[in-house]
Amino acid sequence: MALLTHWPLAGLRLTTPRLELRLPDPDDLAALAALAAEGVHEPAVQPFTVAWTDVTPEQRARSVLQYHWRRWGDWQPENWELNLVALRDGTVVGTQGIGARDFQVRREVNTGSWLGRTYHGQGLGTEMRAAVLHLAFAGLGAQDAVSGAYADNAASLRCRASLAIAKTASNAMPYVPSPPCCADSA
Fold first, then answer.
1. Cα–Cα distance, 63 to 58 (Å, whole number)
2. Rounded to whole angstroms, how far apart are CA atoms 157 and 173?
């Protein structure tokens, strides 16, 4: 019996001009773990609220695997986090997450992502975020998106600006509907 019968998310594909985002298979997860082991940011900088990268490469790789497995195991309709792997020309370049709590009531999603250091500065983070925001607003009917970034995280702030996302008083960000992507279900 096909996995799609029991876990339809396995067939979800988001495509952009340069990327495909999908639920990772075991080989994708292994590639993502290896990418994390190589480094996600400059060692002197900590762009995440949880310092998961401040460990040995082996620990970083294992934590990526465990994180994805936990999110799959914890999935609930009222509390979910969808962590997709991003591929460029068939190569894993990073991961893009989108999640929600009480989505049916709040209609709000949050996003988070990281790219391997080799892939920084190419606009891929913006493309990844645009894809999941398109899914959230056009596909799921979200009304707000929340995405945090430290004031000194220039890359995340540039991503926000290029998507014309502005922080509002409620910390929710209005969505500009026209990202270069589409959602397909295999």
1. 9
2. 13
- List, in order, residues 6 or more apart from 148 with CB less than 8 Å away: 49, 110, 112
In whole angstroms, how far apart are CA 166 and each of 59, 66, 132, 172? 35, 33, 17, 8
Which residues, including other chains, have CB under 8 Å from residue 61's CB and lie 6 or more apart? 33, 34, 36, 37
**pTM assigned to the model:** 0.77
Cα 92 from Cα 19, distance rounded (Å): 10
What would the pLDDT profile of 136-186 be if each residue is shown by its tens digit?
989 999 988 876 554 555 555 555 555 544 343 344 444 333 333 333 334
Given a contact cutoff of 8 angstroms between Cβ atoms, the answer to whether 158 and 108 are in contact is: no
Pair of tokens at residue 47: 């762009």
Read off the pLDDT of residues 72-104 as tens digits, 9 standing for 90 and up. 888 888 899 999 999 999 999 999 999 999 999
